[in-house]
Amino acid sequence: MNNKNLSPTTKEYKPRFPKLKGFGALEDYRAMAWNCVNCNYCQEMWSWDAKSAEFSYICPMFAKHRFFAYSARGISQIIRALLEGDFVIKDSKKIADIAYRCTCCGACEINCLRLNERHPEEMIEALRAELVEKSIVLPEHKAYLESTLKYGNPFSALPEERLKWTEDLEFAIKDLTKEKADVLLFTGSMYALEPRVRERIKVFAKILNAAGIDFGFLGAKEKCCGMLQLQIGERGIFEELAEENIKTFNGLGIKTLVTPDPHSYHAFTSHYPKLGEMNFEVLHFTQYLKRLIDEGKIKLKELPRQIVTYSDPCSLGRWAGEYEAPREILKAIKGIELREMERNHDQAWCCGAGGGVLAAYPDQAIWSAVERVKEAEATGASVLATACPWCEYNLESGIEVRKSKMELLDVAEIVWKSMKGGEK
Amino acid sequence: MNSAKVAKVEPKKLLPEVYKQLEAIVGQDWISEDRAIVEGYSRGLMVPTEISPKHAKDPTVLPACIILPGTTEEVQAIVRLCNRHEVPITPYTNGQMFVTPTTSGTVCIHFSRMDRILGINEKNLTATLQPYVSYNVLQAEAMKKGMWNGGTPLATGICKVSSQFAGAGIWQTDLKYGTLSRNIVSVKMVLPDGNILVTGSAGQPGTENFWEYSPGPDIIGLTRSSLGTLGLVTEITVKLHTWVGGFSFPEDVGHPSINTYYADAEEKRFDRPPTPERHRIYWLEFPDYDSEIEALYKIAHSGIGIGLNATGAYSLYYCSQTTEMTNQRAEKEFFFPWNCYVMLAGISSVKQLEYEEKVLRQIAHETKGKFLSEEYKPEVLDALAPWSQDCVRHVTGMRMCRGGWSGFVIPIGRISMAKKHSVIWCKALEELGETHITDRGGCGSTPMIYVVNRGHFMYSETDNYPQTHADPNGLDKVLEYLIYSHTASIKERIAGMGAAISAEPFTSFYPEIGPNTDLFLRKVRNAFDPKGIYAPGRRVYTKEEFEKVPMEVVGLINKHREKFSLPAVKAE
């Protein structure tokens, strides 16, 4: 285990921690912390859904580390003890390690909500906010946060790099800071800036173009959605980004914002409304694709027979409730047989990359991805489909590490293949 | 966070050389004495005597360290080392109750790494498991081979099968398969002195692991249901039974999400799983308690069905996705009080189902039972949908824990005894006051009644729901409920069982219940655990531990003993 010995006395990072509307402080979770009943459904699958011994855990952090502290149950008790003054943060060298190994996948949240109407994931995020307030920030996250303040994205990339994916496109995309369009394609920082997944954003644009959609993007002016920063516990940066983005989006005159990044979708639909009204609809790319297919704007052609399995991105499925659009799209393509993994929908296993884990604990992130690839292989599928840049980045690592023969594709890539009659 | 100065709770640490030796056994990744890590093992759920010390900032509930062994050999090495240094140890699987340390400096042995199914024997109908295998997992794997373990315990399917050795798990399918603790073939356990004991036929060299007995005394019977006092189970072999419900459970109709949870619940988009193949559930309502009791006797004795459960008002929790829904349904008496469900399985054929249904309809006719159907109370039948899979693999009962749950009483007896206990519980609530509106699930309507072994006896159940975060005194109240109910039950000659009353110190304060088995087990424990290191302060106290029972508890017991005209007792 990569046990980082984090000194709680570090003061290098100056937080912008606000008392943010709609987000609880740790103190607000006192009752919830007391009311953890040690049922362990934050660690393992909903009973009715368990299908095997191999794939029965739902919390990647617990499945890897096996101490209760590395689960919502343990963290609830830690929070209770902190609130009751039984110990203070500096008494533990592991507390940041525990808090930040969580991928914020929400698996604990859905089971605990379903059984006891508790919100353990919110508690964990409140604990992270408390740590940030005390300047306890992991070095990798500190880099994310400082880059966000400097460049508007967490990846230390110059804003102009957001244009890179458009360089060899065969058509021009409207710059919505200069002209109008019905649809804003919000790429998200990961798709726009991470070379490993950047090619996919071209596919999204090609589909919109082929469907005749009047769309554009913000180019170098796009700012990060702030979801990663919020999950890390930096509510101040999130608030600044959210307020700026809401203002920008509202000023564009768009009817629809479409994003292929479920984290952005989750931020826009779950958290932005707490900070301001938005005068347009927000859709994830798969939802928009489904609409275009239903409206006949996209024609799907038969693909060679293949078995595909779909991995629910946590932010799209478990958090935001969109389980079916990606599945319905895949089922609509002739030649594809969709097979579910054992852990699917609300009980899906996280790819392992979320919540800042990919940067801070790559070993855990890859382990989690390998577990998902194993599960995908067990379906007999040759294609592992998903709809999230973080999942795609990490699951591709999992495929590499495992030397799997599976092909990782975004749902939109499969649609594009189908539109082109089998060619990518 | 409130920065006001309050007293910290400091765990007692191990001597550095002891910690190092433990670390050498499992490796540094699998042991920790970090303050945050040990906190996760400091609090039980349901027993007020376990939760109360947290309010009192009692450091004895904090373990010195947590260790996660990977093999029986590692467990043995840990136990031997702790024995040598006289360090107390306590085992942990899911850790819901009977686990919180009671002695400073305790080493918690958490079995979370030992989660493999070691083998399923299809010819002999058994499965051999490491201690962290859950009922869910065992069932899932066994079903693929046309078998299952006969049900999950009340404590939910996520509980570990090995825990069943420590206590007697109960569930509605005990009607056919008997209590789950009676489905154990053998265990391999590390005794508190570090020796390994293998029970049953497996303990004889060259003999297969097929039967729970072996020549000589019934060792498994002695150690079973000792609440973990007599040894650490590192392997358990359990009986399997024929399963005809398909290779996996049928899928629920839908899936909830976090942001849409309440709308999903309102629109009934989840929690509506189909019944497994060749299984049927029938819900019956009765005009009064006596008709229900008569029906329970008749159904149990007829030989039909694999599960029989009078759910009473408990469906309020099991089948309500939100607290608001639970409370509204409680207020409207949405679920009729005198009810039961019967689960039929077509084990031999589909015609078996048809035959058993005919028998059930005849019994219903004789007892004035009415079937819920699409014509009669369809909305109630619809709301009861979660039971369709819960009856086989339990989970939604955990909704009883909303807002806190502490202390339950499980009287045992003839089926008709449940009514008597309901009266006791009603009186307890009237006299002591409720901790929550839904405490009345155990009275005024039928309590949960599990009919066991074709009606040879039943378990009933009543629970308390104190708001533990807001009202520490609520726990004291729960303790008083338990003492009240137990004392009254003793007076009424109802056998008691429950988280707080089937273990010390309560057992020894009620000499009326006959030869006190704990006096005998105290001697047995001395033989198994001469240094008294294993789960001290658990099921069976040492003489010294017994003498340390707080005077307040003794006073409370005597207060109620006097109330029910029983002579006072002393802690000696």
Describe this structure in words.
The complex is a heterodimer of chains A (424) and B (572). Chain A has 424 residues and is an alpha/beta fold. Chain A folds into 3 domains: 26-140, no CATH class; 151-293, 3-Layer(aba) Sandwich (Rossmann fold), CATH 3.40.50; 299-419, Rossmann fold (3-Layer(aba) Sandwich), CATH 3.40.50. Chain A has 19 helices and 9 strands. The longest helix of chain A has 16 residues, at 195-210. The two termini of chain A are 41 Å apart. Residues 1-9 of chain A have low confidence and may be disordered. Chain B has 4 domains: 16-110, Uridine Diphospho-n-acetylenolpyruvylglucosamine Reductase, domain 2 (2-Layer Sandwich); 117-242, Uridine Diphospho-n-acetylenolpyruvylglucosamine Reductase, domain 3 (2-Layer Sandwich); 265-491, Vanillyl-alcohol Oxidase, Chain A, domain 3, CATH 3.40.462; 507-563, no CATH class. Chain B has 20 helices and 19 strands. In chain B, helix 1 (16-26) runs antiparallel to helix 4, helix 16 crosses helix 17 and helix 17 (472-491) packs across helix 20 (551-563).
Distinctive features:
heterodimer, A: Rossmann fold, Rossmann fold, 3 domains, five-stranded parallel beta sheet, four-stranded parallel beta sheet, 19 helices, 9 strands, B: 572 residues, Uridine Diphospho-n-acetylenolpyruvylglucosamine Reductase, domain 3, 4 domains, five-stranded antiparallel beta sheet
Low-confidence stretches of chain A: 1-9
The appropriate CATH architecture of the largest domain in chain B is 3-Layer(aba) Sandwich
User: Which fold does the CATH topology of the largest domain in chain A refer to?
Assistant: Rossmann fold
Supply the CATH architecture of the largest domain in chain A. Answer: 3-Layer(aba) Sandwich
Classify the helix fraction of chain B into a percent range.
25-40%
Largest sheet of chain A: 5 strands, parallel
Which CATH class of the largest domain in chain A? Alpha Beta
Which range does the strand content of chain B fall in?
A: 5-15%
Round the mean pLDDT of chain A to the nearest integer and report it.
Answer: 94
Oligomer: heterodimer
Mean pLDDT of chain B: 88
Number of helices of chain B: 20
Biggest sheet details of chain B: 8 strands, antiparallel
